[in-house]
Design brief:
The structure is a homodimer.
Chain A lengths: L20 H7 L1 E2 L2 H7 L9 H22 L5 E10 L2 E8 L6 H9 L3 E2 L15 H13 L3 E6 L7 E8 L4 E9 L12 E9 L9 H11 L4 E5 L5 E4 L22 H10 L5 H8 L5 H10 L13 H13 L15 H11 L4 E6 L3 E3 L2 E11 L10 E6 L2 E3 L7 H8 L8 E2 L5 E2 L2 E9 L16 H53 L3 H15 L26 E3 L2 H5 L40
Parallel strand pairs in A: 2-9, 14-18
Antiparallel strand pairs in A: 2-3, 3-8, 5-6, 5-8, 6-7, 9-10, 11-13, 11-19, 12-13, 13-18, 14-15, 16-17
Helix pairs in contact in A: 3-5, 7-10, 8-9, 9-10, 12-13, 13-14
Chain lengths: ~600, ~600
């Protein structure tokens, strides 16, 4: 430890001249949140040119959908990708939402961690107040160009144009210019809306994890939205509405007491404006009735009338422990709006050329005090590739999740499901193999994402468990179908053997007994048909089994298509299951083909 | 679109009474970075009780190692886990680093995004200024208890005790108390150091992804550190030093021009204190010589003497384009300090009971302007489990990465390596199967993590490519070894067949020719040995082949142990490859056993 500091500089040693505490303290300083995310922009989904383009579109469209729904407007969204040069695009997204009031524009588009969705518990697509300003920041970083926002909040107010640049060292927007632009009014047919345009480095490529796939899947999960997409090659692709009904509005809820931690409880007590403990508990949490509040207080050695200001650390710990022991109703679940079994089936039918479809919506559950629910759809067979790993399509609050699949709770749930029980092969620690597409949706007032880019759902036990239960439910139905299909095949073979000999047998029997060969043949055929009736299942009406004995027969969550319906682009698929707005677009991303192998599209041209 | 807003409230409709832009603007507000991370604490590694305990220890130990190395002190670190109740722990970490000056204590421990490592390009464990304050925030959230910091910056200055709580709504520390504590001086034998104590909800459980595994692996990658671990059951586990040499100090570097984006370049131009473009380019970037600077300026239509204040968007774009076209030296790589092949081998030898070991350190490469290098170690056979997926141990800047393996570039690199070429079986999209442990280290001035919890390396092409090259290098050597092992086995069988008949043949030949049976036997044996000499390979010295023809023979990056050396706890392993400080601890985490199945430890007891 006595090595001289000066001689130690040239090579490694036990002690070299290093920095002192004072020297090191001079290096220490604040990091602005925008500097942090600019340097770590991959955390926000801006990893590379292709993904960045997708992320920018995703953030803008998610915001547009949220704004429209909150304002009670059927969303009408226009996405345009204009290619400026080989690697530069202008992304423009316009909605018919309520618009944004002038003084909030620079906050919403020019600051990270600013928004309306973070401080409440309500099911929405955005939740962090980062996405769209991050897209603008990425555009500025890569092209030096400001973001242009046009907003119109009322039919009678002129549209406003604001041009802004984020100052990343301060996490604040520099407004380059702001002007009233009545001539932009034409952009907003409904009299209100927002348009954001960002110029950025990007790469447009169709296939897996593309803007196209994101919009395809968004249309599946949001059949109430009308989306128009103008591609870089100036094609117009329209996603028409599948329904003219807005989904029910998601309700905002208060935090559930069982999900609160001691330190957070103490902080809430320090900050509440209530004066008495009873009022604090009843007003700031959900599911605490006066009697529950009284029970908690008494267990904690206080009363509901105890002044909040007299609650110290010991009393707070008492309240915390009493909450853990108390019987409190599970959180309300009307705050969750599922996509629904019918819409899941309809989405899969629209996009996947399979023969068997099933879906289920689980009852709501709770993780860390947050209500959530899981829905799963499954499609099997038909034209899906047979010898590939199955495809998993993931959604959170109706938003498609296209990246980081293997980090997602849903992926782990698929891995942990015993697919072999349902007749599907699976190697260890791997996805099962077979012609299957699985669609998993999590709806929650707060989705725990594994990163700010919101690509994967964090692996909470409660969430994974619900996902597995839902997968087991659809898996069981698939298993029944596969066993029956196997049996049908077997019985079909038996019948064809019967039939092969029935003619000769009846001729011979006529010769022996004198009974008419025709009569013998008919009655033998009847017996053969009864014995092998399973083989007829496929011939029943439009592919749906209606026989009582059939466990899938009366199940509204199951659709089975005959082969010709699969091939015929669904024209003869059961009426009630095809959404009216089926856009008949080829959906290249959904057939298990690899990223590079994109099938040609036949988009509708417009104008 | 004319639906009356009032009747629409009860059920879904095309237009319901929703929020207006004005109403929505009232909801919008700033989110403090600490509020954000408190709600998203799983992003920081505080997902659950067990992982939180690990993360807190990891952040404190990583900081301690960084501080010691920066101050040029051989690290001496003490980690204590004191169990307060079933689910509550006090985590105390003490180091002999330089200490922290008084006024920075509340910033470093009480604010997220504050630190010395973010704004520079230098290889270090910490980089974000989040970790340790997040651990304190988690402790406060779960227990309501403040963080206690004791720091001593100089032998002659008394130790200072600061008790602080983070105000998450402001991302600032509330200092509860601060006092000079000369009686704490005894904690710091070297006259300086820092101790942080955090009370938190946690769960202590050994095995995979535990505090024990983290410290085990930290000791492997940091043989210059002395770590003492006091477990909750009051056992003392010591990790002695493997070397008394500090690793060379990592150098700080300037950004490389090729890694800069246009927008960032514009921002640098706006903020520089240089007055002329030439000076700006030469002083604020690495690898720009006066001639390169001149070349860039001329291409951009300006000169090195052009005033920075006259550079507009067009000129900046010109400079940016000229940089992309210019030939500029790759960044210096002396800023990277590899663990080194020798230390990798020694770490694996110490911890894994295998028969074959190899390692390689790749030359440095660059991603987004940031130099990095990859090192890989591989152990095969011996007592490693044969029929499980291989084990991957990951490090970034000498820090073990224990979570999110499947999201890590290293994991993808392992998946994409063609292991079958080396005789190892592998199913599609899965890790290979066999008795193998692979250790991957990435050293960089800026490691791109997939989340703030720094558990996985983001998947940059350049990084994955280097990892694959390194894996191929060790894989090839493994392949040679396995083929030779196969050949040896084969030749051994041939020889034993020869030998079985040699005696009889020589007897018979003597009877026929009269030549001495002994002589015939000896010469036949000589021929047989020459023909099957491969079978002797294993008998050469300590398991290492020295024959010229053997492709692994003279390779210092390969160690082959005879079976007895594997079993004998390495007592007779080759001298030069075992690090002097081998602590002889059982390393339960490294044998491929599952999380639950922890082998008993035989730790040294102390005191």
């Amino acid at each position: 430890m006595d090595a001289s500091p000066n001689t130690a500089m040239s090579k490694p040693s036990t002690r070299r001249r290093g920095a002192t505490a004072e020297e090191m303290s001079l290096q220490q300083r604040e990091i602005s949140v925008s500097e942090f995310f600019a340097k770590n922009r991959h955390l926000l989904g801006f990893d590379n040119a292709r993904k960045s383009l997708l992320t920018a579109v995703k953030e803008a469209v998610d915001n547009a959908l949220d704004a429209c729904e909150e304002a009670g407007v059927l969303p009408d969204i226009r996405v345009e990708l204009l290619q400026r040069s080989e690697s530069r695009f202008k992304v423009t997204v316009r909605d018919n939402g309520p618009g944004i009031v002038r003084h909030q524009i620079e906050n919403i588009f020019g600051r990270l961690l600013y928004g309306s969705k973070f401080h409440r518990l309500k099911m929405s697509r955005g939740q962090q107040g980062i996405g769209i300003s991050a897209a603008g920041m990425y555009g500025l970083m890569t092209t030096g160009q400001p973001v242009l926002i046009i907003s119109k909040t009322h039919r009678k107010k002129p549209a406003v144009e604001v041009l802004l640049k984020m100052d990343t060292s301060k996490n604040r927007a520099d407004v380059v210019s702001e002007t009233e632009h009545p001539e932009d009014d034409g952009l907003f047919a409904d009299g209100h809306g927002t348009q954001v345009a960002i110029e950025m480095e990007g790469k447009y490529q169709q296939g897996r994890q593309s803007v196209d796939e994101y919009l395809d899947q968004t249309a599946i999960a949001n059949p109430h939205a009308h989306i128009t997409f103008i591609t870089p090659s100036n094609e117009t692709i329209e996603y028409k509405r599948g329904t003219n009904e807005l989904p029910p509005e998601a309700k905002e809820i208060l935090p559930h007491p069982k999900g609160i931690e001691l330190g957070t409880l103490i902080q809430m007590i320090e900050r509440t404006e209530r004066s008495q403990v009873g009022g604090f508990l009843q007003e700031e949490f959900s599911r605490i009735s006066p009697s529950v509040s009284k029970e908690i207080c008494l267990k904690a050695g206080i009363t509901p009338r105890t002044w909040v200001k007299n609650v110290g650390h010991a009393e707070a710990e008492g309240i915390y422990r009493a909450i853990q022991e108390a019987k409190i109703m599970a959180p309300a679940t009307d705050c969750l709006v599922p996509i629904g079994t019918k819409a899941l089936l309809s989405g899969l039918l629209k996009e996947v050329k399979a023969e068997f479809f099933t879906a289920c919506t689980r009852p709501a559950d709770v993780y860390r005090g947050n209500p959530f629910l899981i829905e799963v759809g499954l499609a099997f067979g038909g034209e899906l590739p047979k010898d590939e790993l199955i495809r998993v399509i993931r959604f959170a609050n109706r938003v498609p999740l296209l990246y980081q699949q293997s980090a997602c709770a849903s992926f782990k749930a698929v891995l942990e499901t015993a697919w072999r029980n349902y007749g599907i092969s699976q190697s260890r620690a791997s996805l099962p193999e077979g012609p299957i597409v699985v669609m998993i949706h999590m709806a929650s007032v707060w989705v725990p994402f594994t990163s700010e880019s919101k690509e994967a759902i964090a692996d909470y036990d409660e969430i994974r468990k619900e996902m597995k239960l839902a997968l087991q439910e659809v898996g069981r139905k698939l298993g029944i179908y596969l066993r029956r299909r196997q049996r049908m095949k077997h019985e079909g073979e038996r019948r064809s053997i019967f039939e092969r000999y029935l003619g000769e047998i009846s001729q011979a029997t006529e010769a022996i007994t004198g009974t008419s060969a025709k009569r013998i043949y008919d009655s033998l055929l009847k017996v053969a048909k009864r014995k092998t009736e399973e083989a007829d299942a496929v011939l029943d009406d439009e592919g749906k089994r209606v026989k009582d004995a059939d466990p899938l027969g009366k199940d509204a969550s199951v659709i089975i298509l005959p082969a010709r319906a699969i091939r015929a682009n669904r024209a003869d698929a059961p009426e009630e299951t095809v959404s009216p707005g089926d856009s008949k677009r080829a959906a290249p991303g959904l057939f298990g083909d690899h990223e590079a192998a994109v099938k040609p599209k036949t988009p509708r041209r417009k104008g």
